[in-house]
Design brief:
The structure is a single chain. It is built from 13 helices and 9 strands. It is of the alpha+beta class. Strands 1, 2, 3, 4, 5, 6 and 7 form a 7-stranded mixed sheet that branches. Strands 8-9 form a two-stranded antiparallel ribbon. It folds into 3 domains: 91 residues, Butyryl-Coa Dehydrogenase, subunit A, domain 1 (Orthogonal Bundle), CATH 1.10.540; 120 residues, Butyryl-CoA Dehydrogenase, subunit A, domain 2 (Beta Barrel), CATH 2.40.110; 119 residues, Butyryl-CoA Dehydrogenase, subunit A, domain 3.
Length: 401
Protein backbone atom coordinates (compact mmCIF):
# COMPACT_ATOMS: atom_id res chain seq x y z
CA UNK A 1 0.00 0.00 0.00
CA UNK A 2 1.28 3.48 -0.90
CA UNK A 3 1.34 5.55 2.28
CA UNK A 4 2.83 8.69 0.72
CA UNK A 5 0.76 11.82 1.22
CA UNK A 6 -0.63 13.66 -1.77
CA UNK A 7 0.14 17.29 -2.55
CA UNK A 8 -3.32 18.26 -1.32
CA UNK A 9 -2.81 16.44 1.97
CA UNK A 10 0.57 18.14 2.48
CA UNK A 11 -1.11 21.49 1.83
CA UNK A 12 -3.82 20.77 4.43
CA UNK A 13 -1.14 20.00 6.98
CA UNK A 14 1.04 23.01 6.13
CA UNK A 15 -1.81 25.52 6.07
CA UNK A 16 -3.27 24.34 9.36
CA UNK A 17 0.12 24.21 11.08
CA UNK A 18 0.92 27.76 10.02
CA UNK A 19 -2.47 29.04 11.20
CA UNK A 20 -2.24 27.30 14.57
CA UNK A 21 1.32 28.52 15.08
CA UNK A 22 0.06 32.10 14.81
CA UNK A 23 -3.06 31.73 16.95
CA UNK A 24 -2.20 29.17 19.65
CA UNK A 25 0.28 29.13 22.48
CA UNK A 26 0.30 28.79 26.27
CA UNK A 27 -1.52 32.04 26.91
CA UNK A 28 -4.01 31.56 24.08
CA UNK A 29 -4.88 28.05 25.21
CA UNK A 30 -5.30 29.16 28.81
CA UNK A 31 -7.67 31.93 27.67
CA UNK A 32 -9.60 29.55 25.41
CA UNK A 33 -10.28 26.90 28.05
CA UNK A 34 -11.49 29.60 30.41
CA UNK A 35 -14.34 30.65 28.10
CA UNK A 36 -17.89 29.40 28.50
CA UNK A 37 -17.49 27.27 25.37
CA UNK A 38 -14.16 25.78 26.45
CA UNK A 39 -12.51 26.89 23.19
CA UNK A 40 -11.90 30.07 21.17
CA UNK A 41 -15.11 30.69 19.14
CA UNK A 42 -13.38 33.15 16.82
CA UNK A 43 -10.62 30.69 15.96
CA UNK A 44 -13.21 27.93 15.49
CA UNK A 45 -15.12 30.08 13.00
CA UNK A 46 -11.91 30.68 11.11
CA UNK A 47 -10.96 27.00 11.08
CA UNK A 48 -14.45 26.17 9.81
CA UNK A 49 -14.93 29.05 7.41
CA UNK A 50 -11.45 29.41 5.92
CA UNK A 51 -10.23 25.81 6.09
CA UNK A 52 -13.49 23.85 6.26
CA UNK A 53 -12.19 21.49 8.95
CA UNK A 54 -15.56 20.23 10.27
CA UNK A 55 -16.64 19.28 6.74
CA UNK A 56 -13.43 17.67 5.53
CA UNK A 57 -14.88 14.15 5.56
CA UNK A 58 -18.45 15.15 4.65
CA UNK A 59 -19.84 14.86 1.14
CA UNK A 60 -19.98 17.85 -1.16
CA UNK A 61 -23.77 17.56 -1.31
CA UNK A 62 -23.80 18.63 2.34
CA UNK A 63 -21.33 21.48 1.92
CA UNK A 64 -18.33 19.37 2.88
CA UNK A 65 -15.01 18.97 1.10
CA UNK A 66 -15.70 15.39 0.02
CA UNK A 67 -12.38 14.17 1.42
CA UNK A 68 -11.75 11.01 3.42
CA UNK A 69 -10.93 10.13 7.01
CA UNK A 70 -7.25 10.44 6.09
CA UNK A 71 -7.54 14.20 5.59
CA UNK A 72 -9.46 14.59 8.84
CA UNK A 73 -6.80 12.51 10.62
CA UNK A 74 -4.05 14.77 9.26
CA UNK A 75 -5.95 17.82 10.49
CA UNK A 76 -6.38 16.28 13.93
CA UNK A 77 -2.68 15.43 14.04
CA UNK A 78 -1.99 19.15 13.74
CA UNK A 79 -4.57 20.11 16.37
CA UNK A 80 -2.98 17.49 18.63
CA UNK A 81 0.43 19.09 18.13
CA UNK A 82 -0.96 22.41 19.29
CA UNK A 83 -3.12 20.93 22.10
CA UNK A 84 -5.93 22.92 20.50
CA UNK A 85 -9.16 23.03 22.51
CA UNK A 86 -11.92 22.76 19.90
CA UNK A 87 -15.14 20.85 19.18
CA UNK A 88 -13.58 19.26 16.07
CA UNK A 89 -13.19 15.77 17.51
CA UNK A 90 -16.64 15.54 19.10
CA UNK A 91 -18.39 17.09 16.10
CA UNK A 92 -16.55 15.80 13.03
CA UNK A 93 -15.15 12.46 14.22
CA UNK A 94 -17.93 11.23 16.54
CA UNK A 95 -21.28 12.88 15.81
CA UNK A 96 -21.25 13.71 12.08
CA UNK A 97 -20.49 10.14 10.87
CA UNK A 98 -23.44 8.81 12.89
CA UNK A 99 -25.81 11.40 11.46
CA UNK A 100 -24.58 10.58 7.96
CA UNK A 101 -24.97 6.84 8.54
CA UNK A 102 -28.30 6.71 10.37
CA UNK A 103 -30.11 9.96 9.64
CA UNK A 104 -33.07 10.34 7.32
CA UNK A 105 -32.55 12.44 4.16
CA UNK A 106 -34.30 15.34 5.87
CA UNK A 107 -32.14 15.04 9.00
CA UNK A 108 -28.94 14.88 6.98
CA UNK A 109 -29.98 17.86 4.86
CA UNK A 110 -30.88 19.91 7.93
CA UNK A 111 -27.86 19.10 10.10
CA UNK A 112 -24.80 18.18 8.04
CA UNK A 113 -24.45 21.49 6.12
CA UNK A 114 -24.52 23.37 9.44
CA UNK A 115 -21.88 21.03 10.82
CA UNK A 116 -19.76 21.47 7.70
CA UNK A 117 -19.74 25.27 7.95
CA UNK A 118 -19.08 25.25 11.68
CA UNK A 119 -22.32 26.91 12.79
CA UNK A 120 -23.47 23.74 14.55
CA UNK A 121 -21.35 21.74 16.95
CA UNK A 122 -22.43 18.34 18.21
CA UNK A 123 -21.58 15.92 21.01
CA UNK A 124 -22.19 12.23 21.59
CA UNK A 125 -23.84 11.60 24.97
CA UNK A 126 -23.46 7.99 26.08
CA UNK A 127 -24.72 6.66 29.42
CA UNK A 128 -22.24 4.73 31.50
CA UNK A 129 -19.46 7.26 30.97
CA UNK A 130 -17.38 4.98 28.75
CA UNK A 131 -16.83 6.17 25.19
CA UNK A 132 -14.42 3.33 24.49
CA UNK A 133 -16.92 0.60 25.41
CA UNK A 134 -19.88 2.23 23.67
CA UNK A 135 -17.85 2.63 20.47
CA UNK A 136 -16.87 -1.04 20.57
CA UNK A 137 -13.16 -0.31 21.10
CA UNK A 138 -12.53 -2.08 24.41
CA UNK A 139 -15.37 -4.58 24.40
CA UNK A 140 -18.42 -5.86 22.60
CA UNK A 141 -21.13 -3.20 22.68
CA UNK A 142 -23.93 -5.25 21.11
CA UNK A 143 -25.48 -6.42 24.39
CA UNK A 144 -26.19 -2.86 25.51
CA UNK A 145 -24.86 -3.35 29.04
CA UNK A 146 -22.66 -0.28 28.60
CA UNK A 147 -25.86 1.79 28.34
CA UNK A 148 -27.53 0.46 31.49
CA UNK A 149 -28.85 -2.84 30.19
CA UNK A 150 -32.39 -1.59 29.57
CA UNK A 151 -33.81 -2.47 32.99
CA UNK A 152 -32.42 0.47 34.96
CA UNK A 153 -29.84 3.17 34.65
CA UNK A 154 -28.69 4.86 31.51
CA UNK A 155 -31.17 6.94 29.54
CA UNK A 156 -34.70 5.69 28.86
CA UNK A 157 -36.77 6.74 25.83
CA UNK A 158 -40.55 6.77 25.77
CA UNK A 159 -42.47 7.49 22.60
CA UNK A 160 -46.07 7.88 21.56
CA UNK A 161 -47.17 8.71 18.03
CA UNK A 162 -43.59 9.53 17.05
CA UNK A 163 -43.09 11.95 19.95
CA UNK A 164 -40.12 10.89 22.06
CA UNK A 165 -39.03 11.95 25.53
CA UNK A 166 -35.81 11.01 27.33
CA UNK A 167 -35.13 10.50 31.00
CA UNK A 168 -31.74 9.80 32.57
CA UNK A 169 -28.20 11.12 32.49
CA UNK A 170 -24.84 10.66 30.81
CA UNK A 171 -21.46 11.52 32.31
CA UNK A 172 -18.14 12.47 30.75
CA UNK A 173 -19.70 13.80 27.56
CA UNK A 174 -16.96 15.34 25.45
CA UNK A 175 -17.85 19.00 24.73
CA UNK A 176 -21.33 18.25 26.02
CA UNK A 177 -21.68 21.50 27.95
CA UNK A 178 -21.54 23.72 24.86
CA UNK A 179 -22.58 21.62 21.86
CA UNK A 180 -25.51 22.94 19.87
CA UNK A 181 -26.77 19.39 19.30
CA UNK A 182 -26.59 16.25 21.42
CA UNK A 183 -26.74 12.70 20.05
CA UNK A 184 -28.05 10.75 23.01
CA UNK A 185 -27.95 6.97 23.25
CA UNK A 186 -31.09 5.73 25.02
CA UNK A 187 -33.05 2.53 25.61
CA UNK A 188 -36.37 2.20 23.84
CA UNK A 189 -38.99 -0.52 23.78
CA UNK A 190 -39.06 -1.43 27.48
CA UNK A 191 -37.03 -4.19 29.07
CA UNK A 192 -38.39 -7.25 27.16
CA UNK A 193 -37.47 -5.82 23.75
CA UNK A 194 -35.06 -3.12 24.78
CA UNK A 195 -32.70 -1.78 22.16
CA UNK A 196 -30.25 1.10 22.15
CA UNK A 197 -31.02 3.93 19.76
CA UNK A 198 -29.72 7.42 19.10
CA UNK A 199 -31.81 10.55 19.55
CA UNK A 200 -31.29 14.16 18.56
CA UNK A 201 -31.61 16.71 21.36
CA UNK A 202 -31.06 20.43 20.67
CA UNK A 203 -28.79 22.18 23.12
CA UNK A 204 -31.61 24.50 24.15
CA UNK A 205 -34.20 21.74 24.67
CA UNK A 206 -36.47 22.12 27.72
CA UNK A 207 -35.63 20.16 30.87
CA UNK A 208 -32.08 19.58 29.67
CA UNK A 209 -29.39 20.30 32.28
CA UNK A 210 -25.73 20.37 31.30
CA UNK A 211 -22.90 20.77 33.81
CA UNK A 212 -19.28 21.23 32.89
CA UNK A 213 -17.05 18.91 34.91
CA UNK A 214 -13.53 19.34 36.20
CA UNK A 215 -11.25 17.31 33.94
CA UNK A 216 -7.62 16.23 34.19
CA UNK A 217 -7.02 17.74 30.75
CA UNK A 218 -8.72 21.12 30.66
CA UNK A 219 -8.37 21.24 26.87
CA UNK A 220 -10.83 18.32 26.71
CA UNK A 221 -13.94 19.73 28.42
CA UNK A 222 -16.31 17.08 29.76
CA UNK A 223 -19.89 17.48 30.94
CA UNK A 224 -22.71 15.74 32.73
CA UNK A 225 -25.93 15.73 30.70
CA UNK A 226 -29.21 15.31 32.60
CA UNK A 227 -32.49 14.71 30.78
CA UNK A 228 -35.73 15.03 32.68
CA UNK A 229 -38.59 14.16 30.33
CA UNK A 230 -36.73 16.02 27.59
CA UNK A 231 -38.25 16.07 24.09
CA UNK A 232 -36.10 14.38 21.45
CA UNK A 233 -36.17 13.25 17.84
CA UNK A 234 -35.24 9.72 16.82
CA UNK A 235 -32.17 9.61 14.58
CA UNK A 236 -33.26 7.58 11.57
CA UNK A 237 -36.48 6.65 9.82
CA UNK A 238 -37.97 4.29 12.43
CA UNK A 239 -37.41 2.68 15.81
CA UNK A 240 -36.54 -0.83 14.61
CA UNK A 241 -32.79 -0.38 14.19
CA UNK A 242 -30.24 -0.80 16.95
CA UNK A 243 -27.54 1.87 17.14
CA UNK A 244 -24.83 -0.39 18.61
CA UNK A 245 -23.57 -1.61 15.23
CA UNK A 246 -23.43 1.94 13.87
CA UNK A 247 -21.54 3.08 16.97
CA UNK A 248 -18.99 0.30 16.50
CA UNK A 249 -18.50 1.19 12.82
CA UNK A 250 -18.05 4.86 13.67
CA UNK A 251 -15.77 3.93 16.55
CA UNK A 252 -13.21 2.24 14.34
CA UNK A 253 -12.84 5.30 12.11
CA UNK A 254 -12.85 7.62 15.12
CA UNK A 255 -10.07 5.50 16.66
CA UNK A 256 -7.87 6.14 13.61
CA UNK A 257 -8.50 9.88 13.84
CA UNK A 258 -7.81 9.84 17.58
CA UNK A 259 -4.61 7.92 16.94
CA UNK A 260 -3.40 10.61 14.56
CA UNK A 261 -4.20 13.30 17.12
CA UNK A 262 -2.28 11.43 19.83
CA UNK A 263 0.66 11.11 17.44
CA UNK A 264 0.62 14.87 16.99
CA UNK A 265 0.69 15.35 20.75
CA UNK A 266 3.61 12.93 21.16
CA UNK A 267 5.56 14.39 18.23
CA UNK A 268 5.24 17.95 19.51
CA UNK A 269 6.31 16.96 23.02
CA UNK A 270 9.35 15.17 21.58
CA UNK A 271 10.33 18.10 19.36
CA UNK A 272 10.12 20.54 22.25
CA UNK A 273 12.21 18.23 24.41
CA UNK A 274 14.91 17.88 21.75
CA UNK A 275 15.17 21.66 21.48
CA UNK A 276 15.35 21.99 25.26
CA UNK A 277 18.17 19.49 25.82
CA UNK A 278 20.25 21.31 23.21
CA UNK A 279 20.32 24.41 25.39
CA UNK A 280 20.11 23.10 28.95
CA UNK A 281 23.59 22.59 30.39
CA UNK A 282 24.84 20.28 33.10
CA UNK A 283 28.47 19.85 34.16
CA UNK A 284 29.43 22.39 31.53
CA UNK A 285 27.83 20.47 28.65
CA UNK A 286 24.48 20.47 26.90
CA UNK A 287 22.30 17.73 28.36
CA UNK A 288 21.55 16.52 24.85
CA UNK A 289 25.21 15.64 24.32
CA UNK A 290 25.10 12.82 26.88
CA UNK A 291 24.83 9.39 25.30
CA UNK A 292 22.11 8.20 27.69
CA UNK A 293 19.90 11.15 26.75
CA UNK A 294 20.51 10.54 23.06
CA UNK A 295 19.44 6.91 23.46
CA UNK A 296 16.26 7.89 25.29
CA UNK A 297 15.34 10.41 22.61
CA UNK A 298 16.09 7.92 19.84
CA UNK A 299 13.77 5.36 21.46
CA UNK A 300 11.03 7.98 21.67
CA UNK A 301 11.49 8.92 18.02
CA UNK A 302 11.03 5.28 16.98
CA UNK A 303 7.87 5.03 19.10
CA UNK A 304 6.35 8.16 17.60
CA UNK A 305 7.16 7.25 13.99
CA UNK A 306 5.81 3.72 14.42
CA UNK A 307 2.61 5.12 15.90
CA UNK A 308 2.33 7.61 13.02
CA UNK A 309 2.63 4.82 10.45
CA UNK A 310 -0.05 2.82 12.27
CA UNK A 311 -2.37 5.84 12.42
CA UNK A 312 -2.01 6.61 8.72
CA UNK A 313 -2.67 2.98 7.85
CA UNK A 314 -5.76 2.92 10.07
CA UNK A 315 -7.12 6.09 8.44
CA UNK A 316 -7.20 4.12 5.18
CA UNK A 317 -8.18 0.79 6.78
CA UNK A 318 -10.51 1.55 9.74
CA UNK A 319 -10.47 -2.06 10.96
CA UNK A 320 -6.96 -1.33 12.22
CA UNK A 321 -8.20 1.72 14.14
CA UNK A 322 -8.33 0.25 17.68
CA UNK A 323 -4.81 -1.19 17.45
CA UNK A 324 -3.45 2.03 15.98
CA UNK A 325 -5.12 3.94 18.80
CA UNK A 326 -3.52 1.66 21.39
CA UNK A 327 -0.09 2.20 19.87
CA UNK A 328 -0.57 5.97 19.63
CA UNK A 329 -1.90 6.36 23.17
CA UNK A 330 1.03 4.37 24.52
CA UNK A 331 3.50 6.43 22.49
CA UNK A 332 1.91 9.64 23.77
CA UNK A 333 1.98 8.46 27.39
CA UNK A 334 5.63 7.36 27.28
CA UNK A 335 6.85 10.34 25.25
CA UNK A 336 5.13 13.00 27.34
CA UNK A 337 6.29 11.34 30.54
CA UNK A 338 9.89 11.34 29.30
CA UNK A 339 9.47 14.94 28.17
CA UNK A 340 8.64 16.01 31.73
CA UNK A 341 11.62 14.06 33.08
CA UNK A 342 14.09 15.44 30.52
CA UNK A 343 12.94 18.99 31.17
CA UNK A 344 13.98 18.55 34.78
CA UNK A 345 12.34 20.59 37.51
CA UNK A 346 10.86 23.14 35.10
CA UNK A 347 8.83 20.39 33.42
CA UNK A 348 6.76 19.89 36.58
CA UNK A 349 5.77 23.53 36.94
CA UNK A 350 2.65 25.37 35.79
CA UNK A 351 4.88 27.80 33.91
CA UNK A 352 5.94 25.18 31.38
CA UNK A 353 3.91 23.39 28.69
CA UNK A 354 5.37 19.92 29.33
CA UNK A 355 2.79 19.07 31.97
CA UNK A 356 -0.05 19.98 29.59
CA UNK A 357 1.13 17.40 27.08
CA UNK A 358 1.35 14.82 29.85
CA UNK A 359 -2.22 15.63 30.94
CA UNK A 360 -3.49 15.33 27.35
CA UNK A 361 -1.90 11.89 27.01
CA UNK A 362 -3.18 10.69 30.38
CA UNK A 363 -6.65 12.14 29.84
CA UNK A 364 -7.00 10.56 26.41
CA UNK A 365 -6.12 7.12 27.74
CA UNK A 366 -8.69 7.52 30.51
CA UNK A 367 -11.31 8.59 27.98
CA UNK A 368 -10.58 6.23 25.08
CA UNK A 369 -8.53 3.38 26.58
CA UNK A 370 -6.91 1.84 28.46
CA UNK A 371 -4.28 0.55 26.06
CA UNK A 372 -4.29 -3.06 27.27
CA UNK A 373 -8.07 -3.35 26.79
CA UNK A 374 -7.89 -1.88 23.28
CA UNK A 375 -5.34 -4.54 22.37
CA UNK A 376 -7.17 -7.33 24.15
CA UNK A 377 -10.46 -6.65 22.35
CA UNK A 378 -8.71 -6.29 18.99
CA UNK A 379 -7.00 -9.64 19.56
CA UNK A 380 -10.32 -11.33 20.38
CA UNK A 381 -11.98 -9.84 17.29
CA UNK A 382 -9.12 -11.15 15.18
CA UNK A 383 -9.49 -14.63 16.72
CA UNK A 384 -5.93 -14.74 18.05
CA UNK A 385 -7.02 -16.52 21.21
CA UNK A 386 -9.81 -18.61 19.76
CA UNK A 387 -13.49 -17.87 20.50
CA UNK A 388 -13.84 -14.77 22.65
CA UNK A 389 -15.98 -16.51 25.30
CA UNK A 390 -13.52 -19.34 25.75
CA UNK A 391 -10.55 -17.01 25.91
CA UNK A 392 -12.32 -14.80 28.40
CA UNK A 393 -12.99 -17.79 30.63
CA UNK A 394 -9.35 -18.86 30.51
CA UNK A 395 -8.14 -15.38 31.43
CA UNK A 396 -10.60 -14.99 34.28
CA UNK A 397 -9.81 -18.47 35.57
CA UNK A 398 -6.15 -17.56 35.68
CA UNK A 399 -6.93 -14.52 37.77
CA UNK A 400 -6.21 -12.03 35.00
CA UNK A 401 -8.45 -8.98 34.84
Amino acid sequence: MDTALTAEQHEIRRTLRDLLARHTGPDAILAAVGTAEGYDPALWRRLAGDLGLPGLALGEEYGGAGCTATELALACEETGRALLPSPLLATAALAAPLIAALGTPDQRAALLPRIADGTLTAALALPGGSLATALGLTGDNLDGTWAGGGRAGGVQAHGEAGEWRLYGEADRVLDGHSAGLLLVAAHAGGYPRSRTQLFLVPGDAPRLVRTRLTALDETRPLARVELRDTPAELLGPDDTADAAAALADAGRTAAAILAAEAVGTAASALERTVEYVKTREQFGRAVGSFQAVKHRLADLYVRVEAARSAAYHAAREPEAGPLALAQALEAARVTTGEAVQLHGGIGFTWEHEAHRYLKRAAGDELLFGPVHRLRDHAAHRAGLFGPATAASGVLHGAGVR
